[in-house]
């Protein structure tokens, strides 16, 4: 398992895709985004346009652990991105965030093939001014720490350049 972190437009998705594409296909792309507005629809379209067969896209805005568990054995899987999944979970007020995070970490631990997870590193900025944004930053940080402990490799992408934090470069 590889955890790829980076800021907005850092090149983290493109880097993660290159890790998966270095393996034999077909490849599975698990998308967590939801197209709530035109700008987000454009972002999703841009990401999809980069991926041609043998990429297979599976949408999983909420039940990410199940999608990871159901991936065919040996199939390389890319999840993009965990912070969107976290946002979706936080906006679902009925969600038990701790239980869902536990389920996600366990699904990642037991993945049946190569797994690359993409997420936004949001802890480098200033302290947000509102409680929801502070909670999001804190929950993302906790999620990243738990996954980084489990991951074989952790990479931070800055200005398109991957910096290996844990594991082999």
UniProtKB/TrEMBL annotation:
Segments passing through the bilayer: none
Entry binding sites for GTP: 6-13, 31-33, 48-51, 80
Gene Ontology BP term (one): cobalamin biosynthetic process
Gene3D superfamilies in the cross-refs: P-loop containing nucleotide triphosphate hydrolases
Catalytic activity as recorded in UniProt: adenosylcob(III)inamide + GTP = adenosylcob(III)inamide phosphate + GDP + H(+); adenosylcob(III)inamide phosphate + GTP + H(+) = adenosylcob(III)inamide-GDP + diphosphate; adenosylcob(III)inamide + ATP = adenosylcob(III)inamide phosphate + ADP + H(+)
Any GO molecular function: adenosylcobinamide kinase activity
Keywords: ATP-binding, Cobalamin biosynthesis, GTP-binding, Kinase, Nucleotide-binding, Transferase
Role summary: Catalyzes ATP-dependent phosphorylation of adenosylcobinamide and addition of GMP to adenosylcobinamide phosphate.
Family to which the UniProt record says this protein belongs: Belongs to the CobU/CobP family.
Protein name from the UniProt record: Bifunctional adenosylcobalamin biosynthesis protein
